[in-house]
Amino acid sequence: MIHQIEIKNVTFQYPGGMQPVLNDVSLTVEKGEFVAIMGGNGSGKSTLCKLLNGLIPHYYVGDYSGSVRVNGLATEETSVAELSHSVGYVYQDFDNQLVRARVLEDASFAPLNFGYADYKERGKKALEQVGLVGRDDEFIWQLSGGQKHLLALAGAISLNPDILIMDEPVAQLDPYHAKEVYDVLKMLNETYGKTIIVIEHHTEFIADYCDQVVLINEGKVEWKKPTQDALRLVDQLMTMQIYPPQVTQAAYKVGRLLRGNSVTNPLFESTKPYPVTLSEAMEFFSEQQSEEEPTEITQEPKVMEKEPIVEMEQVYFSYKTITRSKKTILKDINLTLNRGDRIALVGNNGAGKSSLMRLLTGLVKPEQGTVTVDGLNTNKFSPEKMADLVTYIYQNPEEMFIEDSVRKDVEFFLKARKVPGYKERVDQVLEQFNLTDLEDRDSRLMSGGQQRRASLAIGVAMNPKIILLDEPTANLDIATRKHITKLITSLKNYVEAVFIATHDMQLVAEWANRIIVLKDGEVLHDGDRESVFTNAALLKLAGLHPPQIMELSRGLQIEPISYTVDDFVNSYSQILGEENKDGVYS
Amino acid sequence: MEYTRKLTDKLSVEQAKIELLNTAYGNDQTFLAKLDPRTLFIWYLFFGLAPWFIHNDTVLIGLFAFMVLTTIMAKVSPLIIFILCLGLLGQGGYLLIAALFFGGGISTIMPLVMLTLKLSIISLASITVFCSMDPEKLSDGLLKIGVPGQVAFSISYGYRMLPSLLEEYHHIFLSFRLRGKAPEKHGFLYIRSIIYFIKIAMLSFYPLLLSTAKRSRTTVEALETKGSFYAFNNPKVKAIKLAHLIYGPRDYIFLALSLTYVISLFGLTRFY
Fold first, then answer.
1. One domain for residues B28 and B87
2. How far apart are CA A195 and CA A165, in angstroms?
3. Domain co-membership, B19 together with B118
4. Mutation target among A322, A323, A417 for the B interface, most CBs of B within 10 A
5. Which residues of chain A have a pLDDT value below 50?
6. Which of A87, A92, B131, B257, by CA, is between 20 and 30 Å from A486?
7. Nearest-CB residue to B179 (from A80, A81, A416)
8. CA distance B42 to chain A (A)
């Protein structure tokens, strides 16, 4: 049998690398499969994919042995250009993959380069396939992040390759657009029979879309299995810091808890497989579900004295677009932020989250209305002055690195203000964020998680009253995300209020004590997690996707709603326990 | 305070980006923009060089009038015109003062005025030509007249990157502001603040260089997989790419009219 992709005993070491990135790797992929490649950071996932389009060994000339066949072609003997007719590649930083100024030009760039006279039609067809139509003559800098991703995808399929590789589609996109991209991939897979390979660690997407999973660990392929089987290997995945879907984790934990308590329950005694998708989980858990009287939620009385620290009154904000027309971003915002607030600002891309935060820093001034931070009207003070009170941490940490080492970046603010004894303070902050060993490194060359820590350290060293974080958990793998979430939780000890703009509903549910929902530049809702996550209409209107475990507990009508897997396991095993006591299952 | 606000609004990085992109890509609907790039090259070859060799003031004034006309036709962004005028006035004014200071009279001023006139003609011709060609057209035109594919591609790629680079520069610049310390007092004629801003404007380039170097890896790999290196040396690809460049009646008419105008200017000099 001839496999579409056949990798045999490949070992590869980058020039100048200390050890092989791929170590005796063998793998086959059949035509029409939808494969997810999972593995920790630095496990060799991207390197494996670059074998397939010939970038290795033609472009990266390192120590290479073994053989790779793609569509019957030996990659060692076939040029990258020729292989690109068989393999399309979409990078994680897809923005850098777009090389022409206009949409259609970029989509038809590859067909043009290979001398197809009908290059424009090919580009158009690719754009149609990904659903990016009617924008042929737009400039790429006018596109949103999601549209740029689709364009990169169109460019990759413009030569009509049989195989499409996509490196971490979800990392740079909000959940709504991520789903959109996956739907396109699914269509390409089902309608056009393309083989899709994604590098992914969001197991919930894997469960919903992929049919095969490859696990890579330290340059070795551990296994390739059908998705259902792969994601049920909870123990193995967890030791590699890969988190299976929340519903799978929940089933696993409930099972273990019950076995540990030796509570007999037919559901978990049987070897019934764990669910991996929400719908499977609904079935899995609802077999156990009886009519529950909703328990009364006892609200802890909130008698805390509120001290306002930020006041926004009738704030309007707009900016000029490239076509010189004005675009209104924020409309009539009236908000008071109080000391002790841990606020999550949520809403789709383009809802105005970043603009609202920037108004607090004084970098931009409101078109109308006033913004007052700790008694200072931002209209009257420069951003440098406001920086004594407010720290803004960019979504992309690289944009905060203005020096050539972590230490210099962290001390920049204190040094500029000639704060006495700043060295000790910097030492302490570096220690706290686990950066002491990295202090001389160039921040740009560190991993995503390290960069994020460095950007938080820069913020904390400024000793602000309010800290603003823009998407602090974006682009991180789940293990790093959990670590950063912990660091964010510790921030409340140093500052009076924390304000986070995010799509990460897990972070929102676990951390925030106040949630502000923005839509189209207006405040749609200002409440807490109960008022937001129990309001299905609101979630839908604002385009929010609550974590899977919350959906599950809502679907099962478990009261109060579970915000984390552990919450769910507790509530659920309680219900089971009670039923057992009543002798329902005896 | 209100005026400084308005001025800084106009001078913001954001505004610079908008003007730049509009100058580069904005006006593709004018008569001049619809000409073949080769026509514009030929035209520019004459009007960009000839003024240096012409010493007749009537002809120069005639050429200047023509350039003003084409500049208007090209719908050049007011900002560019403003910068040009500022430059010319500064140059002319400084020479004038120098001439008067060292005891020159009308006789010294006249050649200076002529020089300024020549410079204006050349500048306006450049503005007309380069505002009428978007980078893609310029790049295609260069490719057509035999410039290597790599160079032609670099021009259009450079412009594609410009907005992203400006945006990133802006972010870094703001990072400096968000962590730096502005002078407490503005100083005489805002001199302290101006020095502070110039300093961070320069410092912001360094991080930009470093991060751009890092990002270019993906771009180079993508170019490789999209076959652009293959295309640079392939005449067939070049032919397909440039198939849309067609010399039309519009081009001949434009060149003929320009030529007629120049000849009649020289003819005019016989009578004056």
1. yes
2. 8
3. yes
4. A322
5. 270, 291-301, 582-586
6. A92
7. A416
8. 26
B17, B177, B226 ranked by CB distance to A84: nearest = B226
Specify the pTM.
0.85
- Closest residue by Cα to residue B207 from A411, A444, A439, A457: A444
- State ipTM: 0.81
User: Same domain for B52 and B185?
Assistant: no
**Residues shown for chain A:** 586
Query: Looking at the structure, do residues B118 and B169 belong to the same domain, yes or no?
Result: no
A310-342 tens-digit pLDDT? 999 999 998 877 666 788 889 999 999 998 889
Q: Do B54 and B2 lie in a common domain?
A: yes
State the smallest CA–CA distance between residue B146 and chain A in angstroms.
18
Domain extent, residue B224, equals 135-241
SS3 per-residue string spanning A408-440: HHHHHHHHHCCCCCHHHHHHHHHHHCCCHHHCC
Q: Is the domain of B192 the same as that of B83?
A: no
> Are the C-beta atoms of residues A356 and A367 closer than 8 Å to each other?
no
End-to-end distance of chain B based on CA atoms, in angstroms? Answer: 55
Chains A, B: CB contacts within 8 A come to 156
Tell whether B140 and B79 lie within a shared domain.
Answer: no
Task: Mark whether B12 and B91 lie in a shared domain.
Answer: yes
pLDDT tens, position by position, A152-205: 999 999 999 999 999 988 877 777 788 889 999 999 999 999 999 999 988 989
A566/A549 Cα distance (integer angstroms): 10
Q: How many domains, chain B?
A: 2
User: Given A100, A396, A412, which is nearest B160 (Cβ)?
Assistant: A100
Q: Which residues pair with A68 in a beta bridge?
A: A7
At A546 the pLDDT is 86
Report chain B residues whose CB lies below 8 A from the CB of A79: 230
